[in-house]
Amino acid sequence: MTSVSSITHAISINPATGEQIGHYPFESDSALQAALSRAAAGFRVWRSTAVAQRSQLLITLAQALRDNAAAMAKMITVEMGKPITQARGEIEKCAQLCEWYAEHGPAMLTAEPTLVEGGKARIEHRPLGPILAVMPWNFPIWQVLRGAVPALIAGNTYVLKHAPNVMGSAYLLLEAFKQAEFPEGVFEVINVTPEGVSTAIADPRIAAVTLTGSVRAGMAIGAQAGAALKKCVLELGGSDPFIVLNDADLDEAVNAAVIGRYQNTGQVCAAAKRLIVEQGIVEAFTRKFVEATRKLVVGDPLATETYIGPMARFDLRDELDQQVRDTLEEGATLLLGGKKAEGPGNFYELTVFGDVTDQMTSFKQELFGPVASIITARDAAHALELANDSEFGLAATLYTGNVERAQQMAGELETGGVFINGYCASDPRVSFGGVKKSGFGRELSHFGVREFCNAQTVWLDRR
């Protein structure tokens, strides 16, 4: 087995064909040190740059993203298999993110008066410094920018360590920042080993750390950040419940469940992974869900009609296949798929389980791929019990015709987000993040801006 320290390159493999399409040598320690120095020097310039000017540069970045959308979307597709239509949508969403924060971000940094008599105290939101971001491959541009843009508008600089299989996307994003003429050091990309990440976390020039990834990665990065006494934000895994009650609009619920489960080939942390359906409609829901799933177009991710592409990494397909086989051995009913697809590429059959219980693998673990599990709930109370019976707590979806009851149930769901009669999504206007082993801290909205700010109390004339 190859040790981590013996690997010298980040390698990008086209999951649709299995062909190597790029290799990127890991940087030396001197190159890492130079990047950290640029980020620290850039911070001194950037923090003193007027917020209005930062906003204007974000607008310029939005245009750079659109100008390069075709190349960036194609790179996403060939590096990690996202269907091209979804990849194009990702780039446009990122451009809109930049524009939204350019318009609304400055107000989030306005000094806040306090209740101190005479108005002689206020809260200022000051940037912390260079932020180290360890990012995943499933949304190669969006995952980066949804954390970076709020941090940048606040005056921080950003050091990106991207997933090894999407370094091509990382460097295209860096070029977009250069095209938008951001000052040097404001956005840096480092291509380093896990040892290099540890070095960066411990370095005094790094002020804080953010990671989106697995629970295991979050525990490792969180421990290192804690040892260095640095703030961190962790957005980790999820096994999100999708609750459908008897009074729900069944067709709407099925449509949302299919999109919520299979978007990005099911490789979404906040995907609808556990479909918890009240027993009065579970038979009809299951039939309609399987029928709708069969209609999804699987194939070449560069074809515009494709909705399901290959999984991003061959090792993750092997892991998913083992979870599927474990769940079948535990007694689940296989309604569709259930194995690796034949032929070239890293495809996995669209898979649906019925009769899943809370003791099975697909209930207890996160299945990161095109596999759905249908669980029967006796009633609404049991549905809540099943939903909360998880080590994860990222988001939950609830379909019902009784919105008032849904709002009450939302208060009992142990998740960072609840979506009533609509599938999970991320939007700059609202915060995103989880509880339990789904992590802590928040991205997006004003929370994302202030996560990496020093809330500084300024007193005047206190005698």
Structure description:
The strands form five sheets. This protein has a seven-stranded mixed β-sheet with strand order 12-13-14-11-10-16-17, sandwiched between helices. Strands 7-6-5-8-9-19 form a six-stranded mixed β-sheet, with helices on both faces. α5 links the parallel β5 and β6. The radius of gyration is 23 Å and the shape is globular. It is an alpha/beta fold and 463 residues long. The N terminus is likely disordered. The longest helix has 25 residues. The chain contains 15 helices and 20 strands. It folds into two domains: 255 residues, 3-Layer(aba) Sandwich (Aldehyde Dehydrogenase, Chain A, domain 1), CATH 3.40.605; 189 residues, Aldehyde Dehydrogenase, Chain A, domain 2.
Structural domain tally: 2
Q: State the helicity in percent bands.
A: 40-55%
Low-confidence parts, pLDDT < 50 over ≥5 residues?
Answer: 1-5
Count every helix, treating DSSP H or I runs of 4 or more residues as helices: 15
Oligomer: single chain
Number of strands: 20
Mean pLDDT, to the nearest integer, reads 96
Strand count, sense and closure of the main sheet? 7 strands, mixed
Q: What proportion strand?
A: 15-25%
Structural class based on helices, strands and sheet pairing: alpha/beta
Per CATH, the architecture of the largest domain is 3-Layer(aba) Sandwich
Taking all Cα atoms into account, the compactness measure Rg is 23 Å
Please give the order of strands in the largest beta sheet.
Answer: 12-13-14-11-10-16-17
CATH superfamily of the largest domain: Aldehyde Dehydrogenase, Chain A, domain 1
- CATH class category label of the largest domain: Alpha Beta
**Amino- and carboxy-terminal Cα gap:** 68 Å
Q: Kindly identify the CATH topology of the largest domain.
A: Aldehyde Dehydrogenase, Chain A, domain 1
